[in-house]
Amino acid sequence: MTAMIDPMRLAGLRQASYVIECLSKHQSKEQVVLMLGGDEQLFEMWKSFLRHNRWMAETHEGWSITPKGAIWRQKISSA
After folding, report:
1. Residues 29, 48 contacting (CB under 8 angstroms)
2. Domain that holds residue 36
3. Exposed, middle or buried, 48 (CB in 10 Å: 0-12/13-18/19+)?
4. Residue 5 domain-assigned?
5. Is 42 within 8 Å of 36 (Cβ atoms)?
6. Half-sphere exposure of residue 2: CA atoms within 13 angstroms, side-chain side
7. C-alpha distance from residue 44 to each of 1, 31, 50 (Å)
8. Taking burial as the number of CB atoms within 10 A of a residue's CB, which of 52, 53, 55, 60 is the most buried?
9. Whether the Cβ atoms of residue 1 and residue 16 lie closer than 8 Å to each other
């Protein structure tokens, strides 16, 4: 999903799904912010949303998608 998509053209939760994928692939904050047009505030908002809603969890190895996040990501992708 991340290779061919312009994340700035994604609407709503599709952008959150994009951020989940990037973080779960261990891309750095700087890399994701760059893909979001340099909008660090947008990145932080999605990261906060993902963590607050328990779609992602931060571990000692980085970010991982939770079972709840995987379900929602699948729903978003198929919509």
Report:
1. no
2. 10-78
3. exposed
4. no
5. yes
6. 17
7. 21, 13, 10
8. 55
9. no
CATH code assigned at 14: 1.10.10
Assigned domain for 49 exists: yes
Q: Is residue 14 within 8 Å of 76, Cβ to Cβ? A: yes
The per-residue pLDDT for 39 is 93
C-alpha distance from residue 22 to each of 30, 75 (Å): 11, 18
Helix, strand and coil percent figures for the chain, each rounded to 5:
60, 10, 30
Q: Whole-angstrom distance between the N-terminal and C-terminal Cα of the chain?
A: 15
**Please, are residues 21 and 7 in contact by the beta-carbon 8 Å criterion?**
no
Say how far apart CA 7 and CA 1 lie, in whole Å: 10
